[in-house]
Known about the structure:
Blueprint: H1 15-32, H2 36-42, H3 50-56, E1 64-65, E2 68-69, H4 73-86, H5 88-108, H6 111-122, E3 128-131, E4 147-151, E5 154-165, E6 172-179, E7 182-189, E8 195-199, E9 211-222, H7 234-268, E10 270-271, E11 274-275, H8 280-308, H9 314-338, H10 350-360, H11 367-379
Parallel strand pairs: 3-6
Antiparallel strand pairs: 1-2, 4-5, 5-9, 6-7, 8-9, 10-11
The structure holds flavin-adenine dinucleotide.
Residues 96, 129-133, 137-139, 163-165, 206, 211, 359, 362-364, 366, 368-369, 384 line the site of flavin-adenine dinucleotide.
Amino acid sequence: MSPEDFYGIGAELTEEDRLVQSTVARFVDERAAPLLPRAFEEGDFPVTLIPEIGALGILGSSIHGYGCPGLGALAYGVICEELERGDSGLRSFVSVQSSLVMYPIATYGSEAQKAHWLPKLARAEAIGCFGLTEAQGGSDPAALETRARLDGGNWILTGSKMWITNGTLADLAVVWAQTDQGIRGFLVEKDMPGFRAQAIHHKLSLRASDTAALFFDRVSVPEHNRLPGAQGLKAPLSCLTQARYGIAWGALGAARSCLATVLDYTRTRELFGRPLAATQTVQRRIAEMVRALTLARLLAFRLGQLKDQGKLDPGQVSLAKWNNVRMALEIAREARDLLGGAGITTEFPPLRHALNLESVVTYEGTETIHELVVGKAVTGFDAF
Ligand SMILES: Cc1cc2nc3c(=O)[nH]c(=O)nc-3n(C[C@H](O)[C@H](O)[C@H](O)COP(=O)(O)OP(=O)(O)OC[C@H]3O[C@@H](n4cnc5c(N)ncnc54)[C@H](O)[C@@H]3O)c2cc1C
């Protein structure tokens, strides 16, 4: 029995999904892992990995056509899991590109937008970001203040966005703005005059990820850069459902990395004349990690089945995102403690994961927001 997959869920995956998983796992172990601790310390996304991520053929994994692989939900899940085993920043890069940029183009875009952008985004020859959150409150996106006003054939975009992953790396920003007809989505290109991305520094979390503020000073966006199928807030929320699904899986990866580190460390570290792993209290703490990880994996797996069957409810995604990120955060903190002083440097990953997960627990809907989504689903009352 594998401690990281105690109930053997991996055996339920198709051969194709397992091949995807092992390919991404190899990339993470051989190419990404050697760079990630340094990237975290330096506060930079490891951009040299971008062409390699493109070559893996995993971007826009669920999209059919346009150079995308058209894989199922479980394949997207294991991609996120393996990437986040490396670092939440690495998984965030792929989540944003796949779920928050390629998904809205594939779902709400015109044929011309799909044909132009999706193949480039799939190969990572173009990078995208997703601008929904604004400084005045990410939990209440309906209150967004960025405005787009139609002037002749162009939209004039004014406002700003905050906490945008891949913001300074992006060639393309999917930006959500208020119009006279309600919220609409726009494809804002890097070189459009009046558009500026500014890196956010001094982060203590998700350091190996590019996080930026975006500014729009009367940016003129042609009508053909508006996503024609996106009407109202439900469009960006549908993108978030995709990304949250991936996060529910990604959290398993961070937890696995911490559990593997702790098992390795406590088996060989001797105190009071025996390995730490041979003491009852340490075993209980490790067993608790295995219990929490196993339950979270069952949730993620069932969520994947529901997604493939087209039966996924956003409330189910909320419950899994909330549960699984909380699970990973608690395992990462426990793992850090079990490493003692050794746990505070970048030599071991648990503290890096724990710090990253402080962002993951907040972005894509805080725990409170997901609790309220589940509360509404089961009581019928909207308490937002
Ligand atoms: C590293 C990072 C990357 C990000 N990447 C992106 C991105 O790529 N694109 C994007 O658009 N956004 C992104 N975000 C933004 C993220 O989604 C928001 O930070 C998140 O939605 C929370 O919004 P906020 O930070 O404004 O907090 P707030 O909304 O101000 O919330 C503050 C606190 O109030 C609580 N709260 C809110 N409403 C209620 C309520 N009704 N009842 C009780 N408590 C409540 C919250 O749970 C939270 O604890 C990112 C954030 C981070 C940190």
